[in-house]
Amino acid sequence: MSGTSALQNNYDDNARAYNQFLATPLGTLEAQLFELCIPPCKDCDVLDLGGGTGLGARDAINAGARHVDVIDISPEMMRQGQDYERSIGRSDAIDWHQADVSQSLDRQLDVGRLGPYDMVIANGIFDHAQSKAELRAMWANAARFLKPGGRVVANRNDPFSQAVGDGVYGVKFTDFERLENDEGWRYTYRVVDTDLVFESYALDCYVNDHTEVAREFCEDFETVRWEKTAVVRSDMAFWATYLQHPILYIFTATKRS
């Protein structure tokens, strides 16, 4: 990933405050969408790419997963997750590995100890792909370790959504500039009323058709409907603009045969 050290530093700096995002409307929505995506998975093994503090990993464990491997570029994000796991007296459900998921994991980790997995979580990584080649590498890593027919749970953002507006849903996207490779945009992702600021990317190929690259590796794509979440159903008026112009999409796919 171009600027790997910058990305690592960005997440290291935000690690302690990262959970503040969960208190925003969009953070609450994301958490509930992920819960809907992760089915009961008793005794399954899960890989969480870009797993950070382990939020998705814990969702999988709560759904019955036997074990989760988290891979993330930020040691400080993972340290926060490890501290939390120790605080609840659990030390062996999650293993933590530092690597850049936009590059081949075979060159960075002892992959003989990884997988195969019943499910791969890929939350937040595709918004850091700075080229189509990096996006393809991310999807290749996701599929590489999945069992045949295994499930991917992933997300994407639409930084051009009209619902972003004045930040009523908890985020603002600013400072757009075209990438030098002309494959998309760099922009700043700000969580309102916090100090959380992330450098993010929106590749044209992903914004226009998020399955274009993914179809090389996966099939049976399905987006989870926002109306299924309790937070949206509890206040449809508040979410009306969002439902017309979604910011965050959570979707699933299965590994291509």
Automatic annotation (TrEMBL):
Organism the protein comes from: Cyphellophora attinorum
What's the protein called, per UniProt?
Answer: Methyltransferase domain-containing protein
Q: Gene3D superfamilies from the xrefs?
A: Vaccinia Virus protein VP39
Pfam families from the xrefs?
A: Methyltransf_25 (PF13649)
Domain called Methyltransferase: residue spans = 46-150
Superkingdom is: Eukaryota
